Amino acid sequence: MYQDQHGSWHPYNDYDICIVANRKALPGDVKKVKERLARKVGINWIDLGQFSPEEMRCFCPSILNYDFKYASKVIYGDQMVLDLIPEIKASALPMKEAQILFFTRLYTLLGSLDKNGLDQNLRGETSRFFRNQMAKAILAIVDVLLLAKGAYDASYCKRVEKVNELYPEKKEFLVLGRWALEEKLRPQSSEMSSQEIRRMYQSVHYHYFIEMYNSLSLHFCKNLNDPQDIEFCMKWQPLSFMKRLYWFVRYCGWQVERQISIQIAQCYIAAAWNPENIIIKNLNRGIALLRTVDPQLSTEMNWDEARLQAVRLRMEA
Hints:
This protein is mostly helical. The protein contains 13 helices and four strands. α4 runs antiparallel to α8 and α4 packs across α11.
């Protein structure tokens, strides 16, 4: 929640609502309800999903399903409905979740700023959005660190507490973790100079790639140090290659290939940023991958142009 200039409190994050029913509503009806609810609540987005009881009984271990079972609140209907979901132990959550978190939260490094990038001052809602995105990146790191220890928790507060207990040596990151938790709970719109924006981005960027590379190394059972390693694992590691081949043959999976290209392109472009100089080989490879999805894109984009095109294609995918 955040407080406006008049002292009123407002929700900042989106709301995730799920309907559990034997018969599912039509997609068009769901869309209309989502839009009406968002207007009534006063937020930009409501995610409205649907599951049948049979589907819930078959949920596999994942962060999404873990949070669904242990962090949801029944707002109408059968108060015991969450008991349909099988028990999920934190130690059973697979390291594949690190891959999902990595690609999901790359948006924070690419889409948190407009075309002016780091060379601007921020205030008001633009500052709140940037800070909130940086907090999301830090909290994603908290999640993968806990996954590696089998110690994930459905509570943001408990997750930050556990990271402090399990990783006391990561003093600089733990400071960021506590800041991110406060920012998550009470998003701030503090005025930020370009120097402050750059320092915050540099710190988050550094920790994001260090810890995500470590977590992805555990998932892929291979030491990962750069985007080239991630591209190899996503495309050519035997299990990844077989999955790609399966989707392509069975479903003529050009769409899956497009999504993989966009994901890897985001990785290259985000990793291309450096406080001294943009890493051109990473930027060029990212642009080349984007052009496999949209051939009309220029080959001469700068880093800010490339990251915004990556965000656009991600949203359209």
